[in-house]
Task: structure prediction
Amino acid sequence: MKPFQKDLNAIVVIAAREVLRFFKDWKTSLVFSLMFPVLFLGILGGSIAQNLGVGLGYNYLQFALLGMVAATIAMNTMMSVTSLVEDRENDFTQEIFVAPISRYSIILGKIVGGSITAILQLFAFVIIALVMGISIGLSAIGWILLLAPLICISGGTLGVLVASIFSSSPKTADKGVIMFVFAQMFLSGAFIPINNSSGVLGALSHAMPMTYLVDLLRGLVYQGTPFYSQIAMYNPLLDLAVVVAISIASFVVGTFLFVRSERNR
Amino acid sequence: MQPIIQVEKLTKRYRKTDKPAVNNISFNVQPGEFFAFLGPNGAGKTTTISILTTTLAKTSGNITIAGYDINSQAKDVRQNVGIIFQNPSLDLNLSAEENIRLHVNLYGVYAYKPLFRLMPKEYQSQVIEMAEFMGLQNDLFKPLKTFSGGMKRKLEIIRGLMHKPKVLFLDEPSQGLDAVSRRDLWTYLRNVAKTQNTTIFLTTHYIEEAENADRVCIVNHGQIIFLGTPSEMKNRLLGKYLVIDAENRSMLSSQIESFKSEITQDGKFKIYFEQQTPQQILAQIKTPLTCMELHTPSLEEAYMNLIENKTQEATV
Result:
């Protein structure tokens, strides 16, 4: 096998392993896939909709569903990549690191595998949305499916940057990643509108890469509706430009730092 | 013959530490050799093996493995080595065969196929043959959750040898295994290494496992304190001796005057021998004996002696 073929094969293998594990341990995968939408969409979203969503002027649950779908699949891909740091000295990850393949192939394999399993978890959201009677419409489903690969890749590349930050201290990586994930979730407007956020919270919200992903999806779904100006913060093209720029920068800088720090302990 | 592992003046200094973990060590390992790398906790064993397996960068020194430079040709080095890690490195969610298949795919031996039956016939027969050799033929397609510690180790060895490495690194391979599993593991390992002419580089806490090594390298405080064969180590560090006793101790004492001896705490006579055989010594003793014990040191005793002496020297 030529070096290029070997690395391509490695990307496929690492991605295939993620998918294989998802289906092998389908009970756990199903529970985790359903747990997140049940907790956040069903319980948190349902409570907010009943108590605070009345005066919004638009359907809060539909708004929250789109935000949570974007945030969840991005975060799942991100955590798949950051697991490279957490598990470096455990289980199969050790085996991956000593294989004769480039670090870039390992990271790309993780992003692809994490993206596929994250997209599979989308179905759990659809099930919960149906159970809760949230109408999202076919065009919204179309936009979600169309944007899902971009959302996953963006989350994955962000994961590379986070992994590079924590690569010198794997023991703190799990806590650091959770902090980062929750900050993104709460500040990006995935759960609650942030159009009126100001001061430090407003600045942090606009600094979160996730904000632009969530806004991109909502902007495209709500365009041409009376709620567009109330919900969308930026023009979808601007969101797209920011998302692409952040993804490229995260991948390039994150991979460089990760590869360098991984051996220089 | 060109050494398969060449280490010259290797030093590793971790960030924010005063003393180097490995301090200017040099050694060579020949092809097909069984090389044991021993030392107490914190001696620098894991650091050295991590550098040799390309997972940790060195501070200085030159290392080649199978003719490839560890820095500039890391991928070629990885292609030529197999590693059995201290902590299990298997995916417990997959079957034994799936773990092996992922390994050969990662090493570029075969292209990825989602099912065993879709893999080339050559792969299928190689896996079955190795599993039969290791006694795992009935468990190949079972989930790893059902495997014992010994079975998992055997599987890791099969996997580690699938890409036909020139050097197999074993980092504490017997950790967590019971005595029977340890013995079985070594029987399999020696057979496999012999048939494939694989060089074995072992680190272990079980010193008796190094008894069959071709050479032993002992490190302490980041430096090599002994490098030679197990018998050289035992002979150099500890004498062989006879312990004898008789009812008539004064007569016995007069008959062993010409030998190097000492009296033990319970009054028996300890006679050291190097050139003579025990029979030659006994032939000169006419006093009826009430006790006769022959003592030949184990590698573990020699190891303990070496480490304790060096520790005392360091303290003084």
Remarks:
- The interface with chain A takes residues 14-15, 53-57, 75-76, 78-79, 81, 83, 85, 87-94, 98-99, 102-103, 105-109, 111-112, 114 of chain B (CB under 8 Å).
